[in-house]
């Protein structure tokens, strides 16, 4: 049995903890490998944020002919060379992942990398199921950064179907003619955008009436309208049965008009993710979890067991890379300076959905504001109402802000339209640093006629008290 100063489980954000300040620590990293190739480096790098956004940008470029049409510029989409796109994306990603793995194994003398799944077998004791058999390791401190994995719903017949999740769909050998996507959340809408822009017919299956229904009510409604124009959206559906008929997948549904079937060559399951705490047998390690399987942590990321920290998707209610990275920095500090711990700050957490159109959001949605006692006013500014929006000929985008009617304190901001994730950043900054809407709108220059005038006007439109 080997004993370490520190064991880190998971090489997504967990991999970033070690820097030169840990050079005299005896450290083990345990990583089972992620995605179809069992890669090093976690979800975001290998099967999440980074490859998806490389495909999203490619999809946006493939849509240039549609954009050009309304501007009077005739463009044509020639070939979509899927294998070239895929190999370009993963040619970069795979090299970074294997470089990161090589660096830890070969250049970090104080680090032992176990490339196998680990599970707790006692307090601060992990059994690693190596190819040579189980190996037990113990440590003074553990960091659990084991992330999560896609949920596959229990549909009758699913085990006989050759389906994809976000872990595998980006490595398809060829583009299908048709793709069924189960789910209407982040993963579903990003891949619907990617594949439809590349010429695939999309059928999107949702359990509720709205697409991206967790977004602000006006944003979700607008996105749902646009989704119905782009894709075959089937809301309010329940999956009854699924079957593989040669190359074709047939899904039997119940909907508002009764029973129906949809068919496609490929199926993408995008119905949410679950934390990997079960794979780790957290209970055997005394590590408490909530009903949804997330590891319980306090504001310093400590779990219920002394010396065991957790971060990222395995414990956080936010399944976002910028949150996992923030929590990683908190854990890193608290490992190094246990007598002066710092806390995670989840007060202003933004997110973006990189679909078509993209969405970005921070703070309260209107439905959340309504459900609490908070007093608020809102304003909406269309892209079409500011000069650069005219240049874009945008007809669907808008920014919506919520603020306290007296102080002008910003409570939430939501943008749907081109460059939403960039445009929202000054609003995130204002909320984080307590800048009120009046000061923000009138206390600085806004470049004319640039797209951020959208934000300026949304702020100026707020019906604040005099
Ligand atoms: C398709 C997709 C797109 C996304 N896009 C974005 C985006 O644009 N922006 C954004 O902010 N977020 C995005 N996310 C979310 C983001 O990827 C995650 O929030 C983030 O990667 C979580 O990091 P983590 O370190 O907590 O876990 P991970 O990066 O998942 O790392 C966990 C690691 O632990 C390993 N592991 C698990 N169990 C064990 C075990 N028992 N033994 C050994 N090793 C184990 C896993 O193999 C994995 O490598 C996306 C996610 C997906 C799926
Ligand atoms: N741009 C980003 O930051 C980004 C991108 C992708 C993923 N992520 C993260 O990953 C997480 C997981 O993404 P996701 O899209 O898998 O989850 P999600 O929670 O966003 O969406 C899952 C959707 O599937 C629906 N659903 C569940 N079971 C279903 C069923 N049987 N049939 C049809 N629909 C069903 C749910 O109602 C929900 O709308 C996100 O919450 C997000 O935090 C972030």
How does this model look, in words?
With 466 residues, the protein is an alpha/beta fold. It folds into three domains: 2-149 and 274-336, FAD/NAD(P)-binding domain; 158-271, FAD/NAD(P)-binding domain, CATH 3.50.50.60; 357-460, Enolase-like, domain 1 (2-Layer Sandwich). The protein has helices at residues 42-47, 49-62, 64-71, 82-107, 186-197, 217-230, 277-280, 321-336, 366-371, 387-392, 420-423, 425-433, 437-442, 453-460; strands at 2-9, 27-30, 111-114, 118-122, 125-130, 133-144, 148-150, 178-182, 201-205, 232-234, 238-245, 248-255, 258-264, 266-269, 273-275, 308-310, 351-353, 359-363, 377-382, 398-403, 410-416. The strands form five sheets. Strands 1, 2, 3, 4, 5, 6 and 16 form a seven-stranded mixed beta sheet that branches. The chain has a five-stranded antiparallel beta sheet with strand order 17-18-21-20-19. A hairpin with a 2-residue loop joins β4 (118-122) and β5 (125-130). α2 (49-62) packs antiparallel against α4 and α2 (49-62) packs parallel to α5. The protein is globular and about 70 Å long. The site of nicotinamide-adenine-dinucleotide has 23 residues, from α5 and β17. Disulfide bonds join 44-49. Its EC number is 1.8.1.15. It comes from Halosaccharopolyspora lacisalsi. Residues 349-458 form the Pyridine nucleotide-disulphide oxidoreductase dimerisation domain.
């Amino acid at each position: 049995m080997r004993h370490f100063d520190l064991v880190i489980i998971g090489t997504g954000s967990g991999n970033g903890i070690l820097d030169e300040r840990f050079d005299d620590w005896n450290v083990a990293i345990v990583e089972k490998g992620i995605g179809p190739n069992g890669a090093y480096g976690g979800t975001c790098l290998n099967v999440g944020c980074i490859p998806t956004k490389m495909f999203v940008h490619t999809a946006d470029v493939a849509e240039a002919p549609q954009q050009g049409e309304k501007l009077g510029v005739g463009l044509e989409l020639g070939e979509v060379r899927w294998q070239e796109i895929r190999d370009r994306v993963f040619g970069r990603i795979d090299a970074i992942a294997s470089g990161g793995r090589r660096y830890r194994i070969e250049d970090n003398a104080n680090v032992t990398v176990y490339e196998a799944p680990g599970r707790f077998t006692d307090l601060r004791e992990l059994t690693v199921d190596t190819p040579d058999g189980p190996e037990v390791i113990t440590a003074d401190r553990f960091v659990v950064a084991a992330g999560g994995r896609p949920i596959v719903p229990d549909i009758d017949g699913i085990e006989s179907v050759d389906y994809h999740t976000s872990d595998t769909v980006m490595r398809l050998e060829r583009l299908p003619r048709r793709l069924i996507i189960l789910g209407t959340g982040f993963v579903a809408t990003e891949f619907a955008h990617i594949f439809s822009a590349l010429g695939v017919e999309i059928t999107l299956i949702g359990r509720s009436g709205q697409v991206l229904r967790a977004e602000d009510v006006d944003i979700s409604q607008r996105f749902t309208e646009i989704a119905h124009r782009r894709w075959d959206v089937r809301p309010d559906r329940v999956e009854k049965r699924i079957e593989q008929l040669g190359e074709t997948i047939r899904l039997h549904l119940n909907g508002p008009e009764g029973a129906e079937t949809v068919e496609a060559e490929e199926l993408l399951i995008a119905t949410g993710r679950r934390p990997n705490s079960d794979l780790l047998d957290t209970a055997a390690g005394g590590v408490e979890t909530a009903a949804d399987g997330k590891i319980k942590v306090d504001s310093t990321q400590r779990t219920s067991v002394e010396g065991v920290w957790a971060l990222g998707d395995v414990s956080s209610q936010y399944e976002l890379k910028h949150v996992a990275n923030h929590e990683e920095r908190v854990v890193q500090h608290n490992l190094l300076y246990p007598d002066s711990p710092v806390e995670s700050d989840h007060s202003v957490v933004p997110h973006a959905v990189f679909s078509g159109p993209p969405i970005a959001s921070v703070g309260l949605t209107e439905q959340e504001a309504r459900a609490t006692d908070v007093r608020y006013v809102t304003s909406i500014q269309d892209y079409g109402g500011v000069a650069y929006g005219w240049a874009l000929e945008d007809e669907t985008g808008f920014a919506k802000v919520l603020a306290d009617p007296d102080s002008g304190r910003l409570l939430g901001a939501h943008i749907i339209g081109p460059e939403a994730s960039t445009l929202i950043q000054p609003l995130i900054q204002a909320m984080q640093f307590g800048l009120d809407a009046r000061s923000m709108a009138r206390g600085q220059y806004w470049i004319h006629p640039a797209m951020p005038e959208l934000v300026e006007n949304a702020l100026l439109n707020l019906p604040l008290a005099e």
